[in-house]
Amino acid sequence: MNVPPKVTERAFAQLAEINADTDPRPLRVAVAGGGCSGFQYDIRLDDAEDDDLILEGGGQKVVVDPVSLPYLTGAVIDFTDELIGARFTIENPNATSSCGCGTSFSI
């Protein structure tokens, strides 16, 4: 059974803060080939496409394209604000290993 990705309330709240002074745009979470572990995450503000999965919360949207969706099955999209920096993070149960920065992974 394919479990769609989940977005935490903290991630939706951060997206709302980002979109507060602009035209609201969805956060796109995608997977692309590359990075030091084989795949890398592409996280950016982008418009939704017709075939995207749309996850909504707090008046905000996170979108995932159909090609990336199998790589993100059961993943949790979150936001962390730590001493080393603030960023959106992905806890991906499909990843068998990842790099130290958390932006690339292998399956």
TrEMBL record:
GO terms for biological process: iron-sulfur cluster assembly. Residues 6-102 form the Core domain. One of its GO terms (molecular function) is iron ion binding. PROSITE patterns: HESB. It comes from the Bacteria. SUPFAM superfamilies: HesB-like domain. This is Iron-sulfur cluster assembly accessory protein. It comes from Paracoccus onubensis.
